[in-house]
User: Which sequence fits this backbone?
């Protein structure tokens, strides 16, 4: 018996390790920075994935062998030495552009020599946050507004309107339609469709001043940038579809399918934090998000975490190369992983392992339908009752009094008292009963129209409920698997996962009237 228990324990351990391996999808993060820290941005050469540029809080260093060896190629002077963004000229790979805390720089020979193109009139203008290089012009975001150059950086003019003196957070465009450019700033998301000639606001940001919520109408012209924080975090365009735009905010991720005219929230399933700090759409339209909890990829209507093996949670930037390698610029260094997998699998054996102590999905479906009273049998019963209605007669009963000849003369007797006296007779009460059938209702019953309308509404409601149950149920299984993947030392993320697990359990109980918890034997989170 003891030998059998040992064997079973070994099999259980193997299944658990197998589940974790599937969950991780063979995803391993490798530190390729060789001791360089404070990485804020990264750029991979489009023609050669072995050439990588990394910007840190001190300058730029590059590798030509995929991270085996690095060398410094630009040291920033002044107080603010941070490199905030690196971009390449899409038509000339030798041209590199760097937005730093002390101006905007360009290299015409892949980083061998550098020239400052923009300095700014003050420290806020000199603190460059992001850049976008197009064929005819360059868009440069600073802490004090947006600047545009139409002659490769020889001259600059400042965008007016609400963009003037507004801290720029991100700039994006689709290379297929370079006349449309999007600028995310403190006061919202702005779009130009005439190469920067005019700008319109297409998304309103909700600002925070001194850590207090502020209504849009009450956002005063206070420019104390140390105190102002935008609800907007980042903007990214789908390189394969100029209509698709993705906006990261502190509340949710929004998607527009018509260049910002209308917006919809993306699903939050799997995303532990709504505050998305960075958002990226790859050349293959993969969507990646960075939150305080890690890195996530959006697939099939939900988010999958990719950063289980990543030791650093200070993630500033993401980049992906043509060989499916994903790079994370972090405070502790530059990390790399390969994305050649289809995401976490939900193999039947894994489902059995994690849902064996809980009711099956079909039972939860039935409980949710019963609780919401949207059982299909209810519609069938309505139709049967409506069909039988024509066989039942309509019954009407009438009751009346005959008020004629109630008074008469009593005469003809010499012995009775009251002769020749006008007396009142008895009331005459009449009643009748009528039965009628409308046999035409056997062919068509007017109630059927009402039943059809209610049936459509009930089917829609039942579909919504079952869809919600499916999402919650399988999301809960994934969270349980992710909990098993976490190490004991990672207490903060474990707490986040456990809270999410309890939230999903409560949601399932709300849809089933408490059935889910009542049928759950135990919980991995307990």
Assistant:
């Amino acid at each position: 018996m003891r030998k059998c228990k040992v064997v079973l324990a070994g099999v259980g351990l193997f299944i658990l390790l197998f589940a974790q391996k599937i969950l991780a999808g063979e995803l391993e993060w490798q530190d390729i920075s060789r001791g360089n820290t404070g990485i804020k941005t990264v750029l991979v050469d489009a023609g050669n994935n072995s050439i990588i540029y990394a910007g840190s809080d001190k300058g730029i260093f590059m590798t030509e062998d995929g991270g085996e060896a690095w060398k410094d190629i630009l040291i920033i002077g002044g107080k603010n030495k941070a490199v905030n963004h690196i971009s390449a000229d899409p038509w000339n790979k030798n041209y590199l552009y760097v937005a730093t805390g002390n101006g905007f720089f360009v290299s015409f020979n892949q980083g061998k020599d550098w020239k400052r193109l923009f300095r700014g009139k003050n420290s806020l203008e000199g603190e460059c946050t992001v850049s976008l290089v197009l064929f005819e012009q360059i868009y440069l975001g600073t802490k004090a507004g947006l600047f545009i150059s139409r002659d490769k950086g020889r001259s600059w003019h400042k965008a007016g309107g609400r963009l003037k003196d507004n801290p720029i957070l991100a700039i994006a465009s689709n290379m297929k339609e370079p006349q449309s450019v999007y600028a995310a700033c403190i006061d919202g998301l702005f779009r130009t469709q005439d190469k920067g000639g005019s700008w319109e606001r297409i998304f309103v940001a909700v600002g925070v001043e001194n850590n207090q919520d502020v209504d849009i109408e009450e956002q005063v012209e206070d420019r104390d940038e140390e105190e102002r924080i935008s609800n907007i975090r980042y903007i990214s365009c789908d390189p394969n579809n100029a209509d698709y735009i993705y906006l990261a905010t502190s509340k949710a991720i929004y998607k527009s399918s018509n260049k910002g005219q209308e917006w919809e929230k993306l699903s939050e399933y799997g995303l532990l934090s709504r505050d998305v700090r960075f958002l990226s759409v790859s050349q293959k339209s993969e969507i990646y998000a960075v939150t305080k909890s890690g890195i996530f990829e959006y697939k099939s209507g939900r988010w999958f975490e990719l950063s289980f093996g990543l030791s650093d949670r200070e993630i500033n930037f993401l980049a992906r190369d043509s060989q499916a390698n994903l790079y994370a610029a972090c405070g502790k260094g530059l990390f790399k992983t390969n994305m050649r997998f289809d995401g976490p699998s939900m193999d039947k054996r894994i489902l059995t392992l994690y849902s064996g102590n809980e009711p099956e999905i079909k039972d939860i479906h039935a409980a949710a339908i019963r609780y919401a009273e949207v059982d299909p049998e209810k519609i069938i019963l309505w139709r049967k009752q409506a069909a039988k209605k024509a066989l039942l007669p309509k019954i009407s009963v009438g009751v009346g009094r005959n008020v004629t000849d109630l008074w008469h003369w009593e005469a003809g007797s010499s012995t009775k008292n009251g002769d020749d006296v006008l007396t009142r007779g008895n009331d005459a009460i009449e009643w009748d009963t009528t039965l009628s059938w409308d046999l035409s209702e056997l062919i068509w019953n007017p109630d059927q129209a009402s039943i059809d309308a209610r049936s459509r509404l009930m089917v829609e409601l039942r579909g919504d409920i079952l869809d919600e149950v499916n999402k919650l149920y399988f999301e809960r299984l994934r969270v349980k698997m992710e909990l098993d993947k976490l190490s004991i030392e990672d207490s903060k993320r474990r707490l986040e996962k456990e809270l999410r697990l309890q939230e999903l359990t409560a949601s399932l109980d709300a849809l089933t009237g408490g059935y889910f918890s009542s049928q759950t034997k135990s919980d991995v989170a307990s």
Observations:
- The first helix runs from residue 2 to 24.
- The chain is about 25% helix and 35% strand.
- Residues 1-26, 207-229, 342-347 have pLDDT under 50 and may be disordered.
- Residues 282-344 form one domain.
